[in-house]
Design brief:
It contains 16 helices and 17 strands. It is an alpha/beta fold. Strands 2-3-1-4-5-6-9-10-11 form a 9-stranded mixed β-sheet, sandwiched between helices. The protein has a 6-stranded mixed β-sheet with strand order 12-13-17-14-15-16.
């Protein structure tokens, strides 16, 4: 029934990434457990970086000839994950692949984990995100911990630089691979509010030897001694970081490697580290894992690069203060004059509370001066976004509200300089569909 539903939806030109799973779960709520039987699962969860980390791991598995599938469309709730398992199973519910690479929503993980056999779990980071849905960061941390409690066979790949993520290891007997960055990654960072300034053990304020971004970096508590663990996978030097890629020196258990990461942005260095940690956890060929980092393609809407009518356009999902600030760390340091677009929606999948836009350092865009060629605002809450930029100091003559996506894309395509589009989730999905129809770009699930 679910397979038929997906075929019908695809015939209508829609994604069908989630609904077939809903149909299947109506008939059997535990259908995921049946389809996942005997499948070794690699789970990627955390606030930011799930999709990009998954695409990096996907490239590694592909290059190594591993039998696997993944939820490439980014449908990461239990219904979307169920739909993907069904797609790769026989009519009797037997999965055709040895491995499943699953990007999993932090809140959904606690239920998904009861029905799968997780062998490696990557926790990228924990930040404030969709407060109306996730609540405070400790709630997100506890949801992930519940999921891990159902996964005794899994090796935990934990971000050593995130004090909350690193602390997970203390509560479980699972094997752990820590990953982290031993040095600052940005020459100039945006102004940020830390989401975890106090020690998770004794509540005393942390001291930092260096900060990479947000609350990530070399933290230690001067009161109880809790501190950043030594990473097994560590970036020791950032050699190059430009608009197309990063080149870093890293070590795995002390053995040095040089890695080219086929995606710009300092935060993607962390996603690469997490990928290498998975390679170590699964005992994959490390040289091949690192080589794959230079060859993967980003997920749709995550630094996705498009060329439309000759205009280079990058679409970069934004959804919370920490992630948006890291995007600004990238786009405000590009060398060419550029046009920026921000599309703000407040639907359920975006988070209905848009107050987070006031915690983002949009003032950094105002500081670009003449290098900012224009700023277009779109989405359901475009007017609020325009107000935020007005207070950030952007001259009104540089701003334009364009709510119609077709008009917006035609305007972007007519620019004579790079365009950076920063949409929230549902705006990204709507925009991506519009671009597919207007410019013959592949569908997001392909």
């Amino acid at each position: 029934m679910a397979k038929m539903t997906k075929s019908l939806i695809r015939m209508l030109g829609r994604g069908g990434t989630d609904f077939p799973g809903r149909v299947a779960m109506k008939l059997d709520h535990k259908v995921l457990a049946q389809c996942a039987k005997g499948v070794k699962c690699i789970v990627v969860t955390g606030t930011n970086g799930k999709t990009t980390s998954s695409r990096m791991i996907e490239q590694t598995l592909k290059d190594l000839g591993v039998s696997f599938f993944c939820n490439k469309s980014g449908a990461n709730l239990i219904t979307g994950i169920t739909a993907e398992f069904i797609s790769h199973s026989t009519l009797t519910g037997h999965c055709k692949c040895d491995y499943a690479l699953i990007e999993c929503d932090e809140a959904a993980f606690k239920e998904v984990s009861t029905m799968i056999d997780a062998r490696a779990i990557v926790v990228t980071n924990i930040f404030r995100d969709q407060l109306d849905r996730y609540g405070e960061v400790t709630h997100t941390l506890n949801s992930i911990k519940i999921g891990i409690s159902h996964s005794p066979k899994a090796t935990l790949c934990l971000n050593a630089d995130d004090s909350m993520v690193a602390s997970i290891a203390d509560d479980f007997k699972n094997k752990v691979v820590y990953f982290g960055v031993n040095v600052p990654i940005y020459k100039k960072r945006v102004q940020e509010v830390s989401d975890a300034p106090f020690c998770i053990k004794c509540k005393h304020e942390y001291v930092y030897d260096y900060v990479t971004y947000g609350h990530l970096g070399g933290y230690r508590c001067p009161n109880c001694g809790y501190h950043r663990p030594t990473p097994d996978v560590a970036v020791v030097k950032v050699l190059q970081s430009d608009a197309s890629k990063s080149v870093v020196d890293l070590t795995v258990d002390g053995t040095p490697y040089r890695a080219t990461i086929n995606l710009p942005g300092g935060y993607n260095i962390y996603n690469a580290c997490g990928t290498v940690a998975v390679g170590r956890a699964l005992k994959l060929d490390m040289t091949a894992v690192i080589r794959s980092l230079s060859e993967f393609a980003p997920g749709f809407g995550r630094m996705e690069k498009l060329v439309i009518d000759g205009t280079p356009i990058r679409m970069i999902l934004v959804k919370n203060p920490a992630g948006c600030n890291q995007v600004l760390n990238f786009v405000t340091n590009v060398s060419e004059p550029s046009v920026f677009v921000v599309c703000l929606n407040d639907r359920d999948a975006d988070g209905t509370d848009i107050s987070w836009i006031w915690d983002v350092d949009f003032e950094k865009i105002a500081e670009m001066g003449s290098q900012l060629k224009g700023l277009f605002l779109s989405g359901v809450r475009a007017d609020e976004m325009a107000l935020r930029f007005k207070y950030a100091g952007i001259p009104e003559e540089k701003m334009k509200v364009i709510k119609d996506y077709e008009t917006l894309m035609k305007t972007c395509a007519a620019q004579k300089c790079p365009v950076y589009i920063m949409p929230t989730y549902t705006a990204m999905m709507d925009l991506r569909n519009k671009i597919t129809k207007m410019y013959d770009v592949k569908n997001f699930w392909e």
